[in-house]
Amino acid sequence: MEFSSFNLxxxxxxxxxxxxxxxxxxxxxxxxxxxxxxxxxxxxxxxGTGKTAAFALPILHRxxxxxxxxxxxxVIAPTRELAEQIHESFVTLGKGSRLKSVTVYGGVxxxxxxxxxxxxxxxxxxxxxxxxxxxxxxxxxxSHLEVLVLDEAxxxxxxxxxxxxxxxLAKIPAKRQTLLFSATMPPDINKLAQEILKDPATVxxxxxxxxxxxxxxxxxxxxxxxxPLLLELLKHTDTESVLIFTxxxxxxxxxxxxxxxAGYKAASLQGNLSQxxxxxxxDGFRDGTFQILVATDIAARGIDVSLISHVVNYDIPDTPExxxxxxxxxxxxxxSGDAFTxxxxxxxxxxxxxxxxxxxxxxxxxxxxxxxSVAAPRKDEEFARPPREPRPQRKPTDPKKGNALSINPFKAxxxxxxxxxxxxxxxxxxxxxxxxxxxxxxxRGK
Length: 446
Ligand code: AMP
Known about the structure:
Elements: H1 10-18, H2 26-37, E1 41-44, H3 51-63, E2 73-76, H4 80-93, E3 101-104, H5 110-119, E4 123-126, H6 128-137, E5 147-150, H7 153-158, H8 162-170, E6 177-182, H9 187-196, E7 201-204, E8 214-220, H10 226-236, E9 242-245, H11 249-261, E10 266-269, H12 275-287, E11 292-295, H13 297-300, E12 310-313, H14 320-327, E13 337-343, H15 348-358
Parallel strand pairs: 1-6, 1-7, 2-4, 2-5, 3-4, 5-6, 8-13, 9-11, 9-12, 10-11, 12-13
Bound molecules: adenosine monophosphate.
Adenosine monophosphate (AMP) binds next to α3.
């Protein structure tokens, strides 16, 4: 199958080929014709499957006709990073269309967003909290909305955004096309989908299967030897860009520092970073300034780095789904990748659960020449102990009790979060956090 079979608007078809896409991915093959028909869609797909283009392309196609400068498509996403990534996809795939997209999320100065919305936009990609602020202030006009996308609905639910989503839904035109994408379908998301989708078509791809191009291996090791083993692995592996997962923010930060000390260009992504530094870390990872990014699951959500060559689970994830999510970041779009998972004695049960989910045992590897016999250091030494921070909860938490905040690095967007004090700046080179607006602007590098 080729993209030409969709009969997309010629401007969009041209940008697809400029983006280098040749064959539609399975989710695109299924979803694009249905979305073009105007039907509601429930999409079960994880990051890495091409789901963004699966909704962005038919939306752009639709917006090519009709009034310009009116907000007709709204995408709601759980994190700033994902919002930026979706916006970038609209920019790339809408090149030459002169349609305008802006991102709307908290933690950055609101004024450039207000100005951009006032100037007229066609697409808004938003996180729920800041969007509600704009709705409350009357700085966004949703009366012309035709298409709503809820992306990574399960993640929004996990982060406690469901009440915000419901508030938004209550205030937007009921006559619209709604697309809901989620990697998993917990009962609450299913319930929401049944409430808000009209006669939806369900499209589903590889919900739990990891990309076939990824080769997995387990590296059994004692807790205190994880960092030396990681350094050894890095030394002997031909890595382009490595995404390393730790269980806690603290470990992400410390490991990032240790890798830097060892001479690697490494950054860590954890909750206590300012938006400026977070964006600098992400941009640096994307453009190759940083070869290694260390992150927790939540902080890494939404990262799209199609060139990731290796994913390392410094700490094993909490669930088999999280394992598939993590390693889904490598081996994307038919690129091959490696996933290394360090496992300790305590991880035996989780290893078994993951292997059961994958349907096959994972290969155990040892690194030749590595001294596995080094004794554990004193008890209080860094990383001698297993991680202790509370794990993220699957159930939505009461924001007023504050426990949701402890796992959410995206404070300003999180329900119950205190309003950001001083307005923060946006990404470097984008003064004042101004959302990027025009598709075919020559100011855009890509
Ligand atoms: P997503 O699942 O939307 O996060 O997309 C994963 C990655 O695949 C992104 O880097 C996209 O640019 C890329 N991608 C999406 N669709 C295609 C396609 N048809 N051909 C090649 N790459 C694609």
